[in-house]
Amino acid sequence: MSRRLWTSSITIAALVGALTVAGGAAPANADAYPSWDDVQAAKANVAAAQAEVDRINGLLASLQTAANAAGDLAVKRLGEYGQAEAALAAATAKEQDLAGQAQSAAAKADELRAQSGKFAAQLTRSGTSDVSIRLFLGGAGAPGADSSRESLLYQLGAVSRLADQASALFAQAAEQKNTAAALSEQATAAQKIRDQLDKDAQKALQAANDAKAAADAQLADQKSHANTLYAQLASLQNTAASVEQQRAAGLAAAAAAAAAANTGGGADGFAPPPGMNVDPAAAQAYASSRLAAFGWGQDQMGCLIKLWNHESGWRADAYNTSSGAYGIPQSLPASKMASAGPDWMTNQNTQVDWGLDYINRAYGSPCAAWNFEMSHDPNWY
After folding, report:
1. Phi and psi angles of residue 55, each rounded to the nearest 5 degrees, phi first
2. CA pair distance 315, 326, nearest whole angstrom
3. What are the tens digits of pLDDT across the range 50-105?
4. b/e 16-41 (16+ beta carbons within 10 angstroms → b)
5. Cα(145)–Cα(138) distance, integer angstroms
6. Average pLDDT over residues 266-288
7. φ, ψ for residue 291, nearest 5 deg
8. Which letter, b or e, does each residue of 235-244 get, where b requires 16 or more Cβ atoms within 10 Å of its Cβ?
9. 3 state DSSP class of 331
10. Alpha-carbon gap, residue 178 to 199, rounded angstroms
């Protein structure tokens, strides 16, 4: 405790003691009464302590804002990281599929080339020449000439059609092979781009996490100072430190309630913090256990399941890539959930606590929130 605040505590104690004596607990004595200067000094010390608490509260508010901004940035980077991972996986799958297609096309082209070569060799050795000779020798007037000519013409036409078909199949195989090879090259190039995006996203994520960690550490340090100040102020005002902290918490909660609109919409991606445990079933079980704390029965659980299935699938890392809404309740901005706990980014129970409190403040019950969600398009609550 600072010397100034410690001295002011002594002054208040002396003032209270003097007034007790004046109230009849001891014989009145003019010297025992506090002077007007003593009273003013005590008031001044209380005012000074309150001013210091107000100052630290302002500092805490600004630090909390900075921590929230760092958290929102980290979530944004996590969302970008999730998108890069998904794009990389898609590019890899595409490249593998195209590579398989190219390999099959090449094998088919080789097979058709071999078949066409054998067929061409056979036609050269005996096919077309024999047919032509027989057609030439089987002229008009020879026995069976008409039927022989028709048979030979049919054979010649069949041979020609087969040759054309083989040639067409070979051309198609060659074209398919070229196309598959080109697409494979494109997929390889895309994969390189995705790899770079993945690296960039991880670097940005690390920077965002470092910034959030620093902001959280500074906030925790200032909160420890605030606890001391609350105790000092409570001593001067003869109140409990918890009352002062509850008052500050109430003001913060009121501010959060005033900014409770949650128009982020449903998730369309993921923003997975490293090592985060995502367990939708466990999140639902926890939410069910918390309904009674808000005065709700289990009949509200069905609506809550539908609401957060629609919003996030009950995934604590669910992320809306367009709005930035995050978490099981799809908080927008994500850092609103900091009012429920500093681990809002990674703890699904903290997210559930915030979401239930938000529903209670904004709609009164999960079923009312679900009805509101379904009452307009696009859906939001």
Report:
1. -65, -45
2. 9
3. 777 677 677 767 777 777 887 888 788 778 777 777 777 777 777 777 777 777 77
4. eebeebeeeeeeeeeeeebeeeeeeb
5. 5
6. 85
7. -60, -45
8. bbeeeebeeb
9. strand
10. 32
